[in-house]
Amino acid sequence: MKKKTILVVDDDLDLLEQLTTILENAGYQVVSADSHAAAEEAILKTKADLAILDLMMEEKDSGFILSYQIKKLYPDTPVIMLTAVTGATGVSFATQLPEAQSWTKVDKILDKPVRPEQLKAEVRRMLQEEPENGSSHS
Fold first, then answer.
1. Cα(115)–Cα(107) distance, rounded to whole angstroms?
2. Alpha-carbon distance 82 to 113, whole Å?
3. Which of 55, 58, 57, 84 is nearest to 68 (CA)?
4. 68-77: average pLDDT
5. CATH number at residue 98
6. Does any domain span residue 133?
7. Which of 4, 6, 101, 134 sits most deeply, having the most CB atoms within 10 A of its CB?
8. Sign of the CA dihedral 42, 130, 116, 109?
9. Is the four-CA dihedral 7, 137, 4, 95 of positive or negative sign?
10. Are 51 and 82 in contact (CB under 8 A)?
11. What SS3 state is found at 32?
């Protein structure tokens, strides 16, 4: 069975390494990028099965821009946004509302720090993982 590929983007190198390790240990292939520009390059080179993006990098809305680019190229690719914004500002993004999903282009927003079990459970849910391997078509 082909490993599913997950694009992980975060400008915090320690967190990027932690996320990569968690996901690789869970059996996924990880493509990581540590900047907005590196992520744009990775998006063009790799059709990931799922993307995990940091919201704020060089730009305050880098994650939203990248998510929009991913959804434009690969509309069926789920996107999880990681953000410390809620903790830092008290601002919360309610992505469950259809209006919010249409402008954020994000399927799920998780607050940092995210627990490894929570991340793996969310990834499995987003990938709708089950025994059959039906997502390898491009």
1. 18
2. 8
3. 55
4. 95
5. 3.40.50.2300
6. no
7. 6
8. positive
9. positive
10. no
11. strand
Number of domains in the chain: 1
Domain containing 56: what range?
A: 5-126
Least-confidence region, from 37-46, 91-100, 111-120: 91-100
Q: What H or E segment, with its residue span, contains residue 68?
A: helix 62-73
| Average pLDDT for 96-109 | 63
**132 is a domain residue:** no
Choice among 68-72, 94-98, 118-122 with the minimum mean pLDDT:
94-98
Tokens of 34: 């540590």
Decide if 92 is inside a domain: yes
- pTM (two decimals): 0.83
User: Cα separation of 120 and 91, whole Å?
Assistant: 25
Q: What's 71-112 look like in SS3?
A: HHHCCCCCEEEEECHHHHHCCCCCCCCHHHHHHHCCCEEEEC
CB-CB contact of 110 with 85 (8 Å): no
Residue 137 is assigned to a structural domain of this protein: no
Of 4, 28, 31, 3, nearest to 16 by C-alpha is: 31
Query: Beta partners for 111?
Result: 83
